[in-house]
UniProtKB/TrEMBL annotation, chains A, B:
Coiled-coil regions listed in the entry: none
Ranges of residues in domain HTH hxlR-type: 13-111
Name of the protein in its database record: Helix-turn-helix transcriptional regulator
Pfam families according to UniProt: HxlR
Tagged with keyword DNA-binding: yes
Gene3D superfamilies for the chain: Winged helix-like DNA-binding domain superfamily/Winged helix DNA-binding domain
Database matches in InterPro entries: HTH_HxlR, WH-like_DNA-bd_sf, WH_DNA-bd_sf
Top-level taxon in the UniProt lineage: Bacteria
Keyword flag ATP-binding: no
Keywords: DNA-binding, Transcription, Transcription regulation
Amino acid sequence: MASDASITFEQPCPIRDVLDRIGDKWSLLVLEALEPEAKRFHILMRELGDISKQMLSRTLRKLEQDGYVHRTVFAEVPPRVEYKLTSQGRSFLEPMKSLVAWADKHHAGIVMARDRFTESAPA
Amino acid sequence: MASDASITFEQPCPIRDVLDRIGDKWSLLVLEALEPEAKRFHILMRELGDISKQMLSRTLRKLEQDGYVHRTVFAEVPPRVEYKLTSQGRSFLEPMKSLVAWADKHHAGIVMARDRFTESAPA
DNA sequence: CTGAATCCTCAAGGATACTG
DNA sequence: CAGTATCCTTGAGGATTCAG
């Protein structure tokens, strides 16, 4: 069942595979929202503010699929579902935080460079 | 000329802005290709293998615009253009490397989790 | 050699309505 | 409450052609 009859060249570079999935519009935000504690669906909706149910659902599923998030369904009425980081999810946030810190520090400069560039080479 | 008449809410989060631009298909690859040394356009084409002129051009321009890469034009015949990392570009690669290392280490597990998930919840 | 301009395709993102 | 199904729009990615 391993189904590795032949090596494919789809993902020559792990970081690309990871970034392709986590580098979308919401994944990182969701992971960060879940970092302090497990949260329910509608709570995530509220905290993320401008995300739609559709996108949150898709994002959570992808994160669950790749093993960043664990989904727990409580057989209650009304339904309750909690999402929490897996150890892999927490592990991922560590190096990611360095990057976030870098972005915080350099963002102003980037925006300035961008503006300068745009001004000297308009439309 | 500052053109900051009003504060906009476009980029509430620096990391999102950075990832939106660097998290595309080629930017990171280009930065890594430029890390050891400055390189010419067609050299980058060759090293990246499956990138088109179009995309390489766009990617380089975006990276130049955001201040990761410096572009040097030599007034020669035939034209020669070299790209090299700026200090910001090199600086960026530092935290990025932690992430790359993380991806290398966890990629196999992610792929496995993904496959397992797909098998238990097919089409 | 280095790119810009044009055109095309496909999938990410999203609004909305429906379901268990 | 927590989703899924459907439909739509936009833009990233890419092949090709033209230009300096």
